[in-house]
């Protein structure tokens, strides 16, 4: 059940109606049942996995609270190991098996198993792990009611692809639930429409261009094709993932939950450091709080800081997918972050002046786009080929066509992003005059209706993680 | 409460803007003339614009009626002027909405001419009731008040939903065309303009092909086909599909569909001076040796029992069912079309009798 389908909106309408007509006490059961229904609509068998992980983390947190010192740590390790075992098996078994086969000179898939990656496993295991670490660090009281905890893990708006929410954020809204204010309802509806428009009218349009290129890169030689394909993917992944996130945040808001921002115009970033403050912010925060800081952060000297940075980004890359391409993508970003740090933090954390900013932002966009090659290409050989073509100097004759109207749309959305960067008007739309809100929603609805891709269902990019 | 009011007002505003774009005559004028919607629009536009002097007869149908009026345009002996809004691929459901649009006063025509394939409603493999393309053919002519009837003429919730949504928000139907317009703005506007200026000639001056299927031989018992060398490579597939696909089980599906829409067309003209002439098309170059079982109460015969409806002799055009007059299993060639048109024009004029002064 994709967020961009009619069946999902029917489901959402039923959930919202049931939620608001039910007494307060019953609402969490409705949300939990809806969340499990949503998860099972993908593959009912995997509900066992979700329930098992929920049970492990729920119990581990209680045991951590009741124990002291070494036993406390032991339960933390058991909890984390439980999550990592499941994640490792489902996500990384074949990757490790294939590499082992390579080392032992066996056929490439000698140890491979036909494993289906459970929906959203990377996200909900990270959310679970952050919970037990927070309990271990005494930053979070363990949740006594298993239904409450199960809902935290399975809450359908963010179950599949985040944002990765901390327990204290979720339960602050959950235990002190207040009916969303009228401007929150309007903002939620606006975010859902904005997300839908980003996904259907932009991401899916660019997906077709990117797919045409990446499905057979050798058939499209030359720098022009390579750059078009790569930039199309850069735009696809932004509109796709931020669109999903907008919808998730909007839906949560309609249900009275206030989720943190996950994207803040990342392609306006003026450095890679700035980019990671704007892109998939809930993951960056998770990596910082539970990995980088746990590794020592910047507290043990320069060399160890760079090591921690590289390790964090490598693991962040590997979190996205089990392939060397993702490892390289992580290493690439780790290297760029380290280089920026070496050049002086203030240079890359403080916004440059107006004259320099366009060049810095353009350079950052190009660097990020080069990184997306590893993220999207099917194999490392493809990545190498694409990068070779991008910088080969041979223009080639491109059959990767970007329609003119789509370029106008991108220019328009770029201008909107610049205005949003300056005035942050989206949040204010819900509080402003009704005509301004209505105009924005009408434009978004028309975009979905008229330029949305509907003849094929293109899954959200992050659903595969 | 404020949020609910604003959201409702916003949705109403959206529906208003959407309808302003697609429910007025503006967008259909620039729709791709080569699309199914564009074809219907061109035929209807030409028929609206055509100068109508004297008694008029309007024919409808699918591709088999496409070239019909060319040979009758200047034939003043007939006493009637013949015109056509036959669009390839259209069905009786489309015809109802096309007649409704082209003849809003129901006084424009002395008669309308409707072709059918058989008077016995033999079942078809295709489920015509579920042809989603019908929505595209007549989208420009569907009104909000048609939503219930048009949508419920489909079977199954998904198609009914698509049809209802399409009528409520026509942009969902025009979407592909709109995206094509965005891609090729200048070329599209030029094509739409050219089609408006020239399409009358395209419809009424078109000369069919001289190609014929003489030499093809059918062995009905062995269900084999002999196609001489030099014939069109697609011919074997077309004949095999048309002649040897077997008879689908008679579920009454086609009969119900045909009956419903023929009766709706009849309702349009009930009590008016316009008569409805129904005839059987020449079936093909090799008519099957066995006819479908005779049905006394088929949709066509039921319609013929009503006042103002003329059912032509079922075998009137049998003499045209010869390979030299067909270009493929279904369509008459230029010579066949000329003979058929003249026969039909003369015959319909005789059936109608002298036009009232």
Please describe the topology of this protein.
The complex is a heterodimer of chains A (465) and B (357).
Chain A: H1 6-21, H2 27-40, H3 47-66, H4 69-103, H5 121-136, H6 146-154, H7 156-159, H8 167-175, H9 182-214, H10 223-254, H11 272-278, H12 281-292, H13 302-320, H14 324-342, H15 345-349, H16 357-376, H17 380-390, H18 404-423, H19 425-429, H20 434-451
Chain B: H1 2-22, H2 26-30, H3 36-49, E1 56-59, E2 81-84, H4 92-102, E3 111-116, H5 133-137, H6 147-152, H7 157-168, H8 171-183, H9 185-204, E4 217-219, E5 224-226, H10 235-243, H11 253-269, E6 275-280, H12 299-304, E7 309-311, H13 334-352
Parallel strand pairs in B: 1-2, 1-3, 3-6, 6-7
Antiparallel strand pairs in B: 4-5
In summary, what is this structure?
Chain A is mainly alpha-helical and about 475 residues long. Chain A has helices at about 5-20, 25-40, 45-65, 70-105, 120-135, 145-155, 155-160, 165-175, 180-215, 225-255, 270-280, 280-290, 300-320, 325-340, 345-350, 355-375, 380-390, 405-425, 425-430, 435-450.
Can you walk me through this structure?
The complex is a heterodimer of chains A (465) and B (357). With 465 residues, chain A is an all-alpha fold. Chain A has two domains: 174 residues, no CATH class; 282 residues, no CATH class. In chain A, 70% of the residues lie in helices and 0% in strands. Chain B is of the alpha/beta class and 357 residues long. Chain B has one domain. In chain B, the strands form two sheets. In chain B, strands 2-1-3-6-7 form a five-stranded parallel β-sheet. Chain B has a two-stranded antiparallel sheet with strand order 4-5. In chain B, helix 3 crosses helix 9, helix 4 runs parallel beside helix 11 and helix 8 packs across helix 9. Chains A and B meet through helix 9 and helix 20 of A and helix 1 and helix 8 of B.
Distance between the termini of chain B: 66 Å
Q: What do the pLDDT scores of chain B average to?
A: 90
Q: Give the strand tally of chain A.
A: 0
Number of helices of chain B: 13
Average pLDDT across residues of chain A? 90
Largest interface: A-B, 22 and 24 residues
Please report the distance between the alpha carbons of the first and last residues of chain A: 16 Å
Please outline the major beta sheet of chain B.
Answer: 5 strands, parallel
- Give the overall silhouette of chain A: globular
Structural class of chain B: alpha/beta
Counting helices, strands and paired strands, the structural category of chain A is: mainly alpha
Compute the number of helices of chain A: 20
SS strand fraction of chain B: 5-15%
Summarize the amount of helix of chain B as a percent range.
40-55%
Q: Calculate Rg of chain B over CA atoms.
A: 22 Å
Order of helices and strands of chain B: HHHEEHEHHHHHEEHHEHEH
Q: What low-confidence regions of chain A span 5 or more consecutive residues with pLDDT below 50?
A: none
Strand order of the largest sheet of chain B: 2-1-3-6-7
The helical percent of chain A reads: 55-70%
Total domain count of chain A = 2
């Amino acid at each position: 059940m994709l967020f961009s389908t009619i069946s999902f909106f029917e489901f959402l309408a039923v959930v919202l109606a049931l939620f608001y007509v039910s007494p307060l006490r019953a609402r969490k059961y409705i949300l939990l049942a809806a969340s499990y229904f949503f998860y099972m609509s993908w593959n009912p068998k995997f509900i066992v996995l979700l329930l098992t992980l929920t049970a492990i983390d729920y119990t581990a947190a209680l045991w951590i609270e009741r124990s002291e010192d070494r036993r406390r740590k032991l339960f933390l390790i058991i909890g984390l190991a439980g999550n990592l075992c499941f994640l490792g098996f489902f996500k990384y078994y074949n990757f490790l098996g294939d590499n082992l086969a390579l080392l032992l000179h066996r056929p490439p898939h000698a140890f491979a198993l036909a494993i289906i990656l459970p929906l959203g496993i990377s996200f909900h295991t990270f959310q679970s792990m952050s919970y037990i670490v927070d309990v271990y660090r005494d930053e979070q009281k363990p949740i006594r009611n298993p239904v409450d905890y199960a809902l935290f893990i399975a809450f359908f708006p963010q179950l599949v692809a985040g944002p990765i929410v901390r327990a204290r954020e979720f339960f602050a809204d959950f235990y002190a639930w207040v009916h969303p204010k009228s401007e929150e309802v309007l903002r939620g509806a606006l975010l859902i429409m904005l997300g839908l428009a980003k996904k259907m009218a932009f991401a899916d349009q660019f997906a077709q261009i990117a797919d045409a290129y990446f499905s057979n890169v050798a058939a499209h030689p030359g720098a022009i094709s390579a750059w078009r394909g790569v930039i199309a993917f850069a735009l696809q992944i932004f509109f796709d993932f931020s669109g999903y996130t907008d919808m998730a945040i909007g839906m949560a808001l309609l249900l009275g939950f206030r989720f943190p921002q996950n994207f803040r115009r990342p392609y306006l970033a003026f450095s890679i450091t700035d980019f990671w403050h704007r892109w998939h912010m809930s993951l960056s925060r998770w990596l910082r709080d539970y990995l980088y800081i746990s590794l020592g952060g910047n507290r043990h000297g320069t060399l160890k800081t760079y090591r921690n940075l590289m390790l964090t980004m490598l693991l962040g890359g590997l979190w996205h997918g089990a392939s060397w391409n993702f490892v390289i993508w992580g290493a690439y970003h780790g290297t760029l972050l380290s280089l920026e740090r070496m050049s002086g933090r203030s240079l890359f954390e403080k916004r440059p002046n107006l004259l320099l900013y366009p060049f810095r932002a353009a350079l950052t966009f190009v660097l990020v786009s080069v990184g997306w090659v590893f993220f999207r290409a099917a194999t490392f050989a493809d990545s190498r080929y694409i990068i070779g073509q991008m910088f080969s100097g041979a223009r080639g004759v491109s059959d990767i066509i970007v329609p003119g109207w789509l370029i106008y749309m991108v220019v328009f959305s770029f201008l909107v992003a610049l205005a949003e960067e300056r005035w942050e008007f989206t949040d204010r739309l819900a509080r402003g005059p009704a005509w301004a809100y209505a105009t924005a929603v009408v434009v978004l609805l028309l975009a979905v209706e008229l330029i949305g891709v509907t003849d094929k269902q293109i899954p959200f990019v992050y659903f595969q993680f | 409460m404020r949020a609910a009011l604003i959201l409702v007002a916003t949705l109403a505003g959206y529906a208003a803007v959407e309808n302003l774009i697609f429910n007025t005559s503006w967008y259909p004028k620039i729709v791709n003339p080569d699309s199914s919607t564009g074809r219907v629009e061109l035929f209807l536009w030409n028929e609206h614009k055509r100068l109508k002097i004297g008694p008029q007869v309007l024919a409808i149908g699918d591709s088999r009626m496409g070239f019909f009026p060319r040979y009758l345009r200047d034939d003043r002996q007939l006493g009637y002027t013949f015109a056509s809004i036959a669009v390839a691929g259209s069905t009786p459901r489309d015809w109802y909405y096309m007649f409704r649009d082209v003849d809003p006063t129901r006084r424009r025509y002395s008669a309308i001419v409707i072709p059918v394939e058989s008077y016995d409603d033999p079942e078809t493999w295709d489920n015509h009731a579920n042809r989603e393309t019908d929505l595209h053919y007549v989208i420009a002519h569907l009104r909000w008040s048609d939503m219930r009837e048009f949508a419920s003429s489909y079977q199954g919730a998904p198609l009914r939903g698509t049809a209802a949504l399409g009528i409520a928000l026509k942009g969902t139907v025009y979407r592909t065309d709109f995206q094509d317009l965005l891609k090729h703005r200048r070329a599209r506007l030029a094509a739409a303009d050219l089609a408006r200026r020239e399409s009358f000639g395209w419809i009424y001056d078109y000369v069919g092909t001289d190609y014929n299927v003489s030499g093809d031989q059918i062995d009905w018992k062995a269900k084999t086909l002999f196609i001489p060398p030099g014939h069109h490579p697609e011919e074997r597939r077309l004949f095999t599909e048309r002649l040897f696909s077997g008879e689908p089980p008679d579920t009454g599906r086609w009969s119900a569909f045909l009956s419903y829409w023929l009766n709706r067309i009849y309702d349009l003209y009930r009590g008016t001076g316009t008569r409805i002439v129904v005839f059987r098309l020449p079936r093909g170059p090799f008519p099957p040796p066995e006819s479908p079982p005779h049905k006394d109460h088929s949709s066509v015969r039921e319609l013929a029992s009503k006042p103002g409806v003329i059912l032509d002799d079922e075998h009137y055009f049998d003499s045209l069912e010869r390979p030299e007059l067909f270009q493929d299993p279904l369509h008459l060639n230029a010579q066949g079309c000329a003979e058929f048109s003249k026969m039909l024009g003369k015959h319909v004029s005789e059936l109608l009798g002298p036009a009232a002064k």
